[in-house]
Amino acid sequence: MYDAIQLGPFTIQYILLIYLCSIIVTYFILDAFISDSIVKTFYKREYFTFWFILFITYKFSIVLFEPQLLLTTRWLFFTGGQDGFYLGLLAGVLFLMWKMRKESIKLKEFIKSLFIIIVSFTVVFQLIRFVVLSFL
What we know:
Strand order of the largest sheet: 1-2
Shape: flat
Radius of gyration: 17 Å
Transmembrane segments: 12-35, 47-65, 77-98, 110-132
Order of helices and strands: EEHHHHH
Helix content: over 70%
Keywords: Membrane, Transmembrane, Transmembrane helix
Structural class: mainly alpha
Distance between the termini: 13 Å
Number of domains: 1
């Protein structure tokens, strides 16, 4: 398990800060590397909504995968695990596809831009993780 920062009563794991920094840096990479078009404005508008849907689905997927844990008193502290992440990713991509259809964006441009975002997020995440965790 990764180390954490203690801020008063809150304990924040370094990995969560790395995810947050990676999401923000990827947003700026999205702004720089996707050419100006309707796809760029679409992704800039829906980027943080996608991450919010992924996070909420991930956090509350415990209801689907481990419903017996809801009877405990600390069920809000549980996460959905890997299955919850994939469910959140699926929900986020389905949301983007629904919005894409609504705004009549071409599928080829959508997939190309989504690929750029996924690759840039992965590279940024691995780079930040390497730098931060190598100094701890």
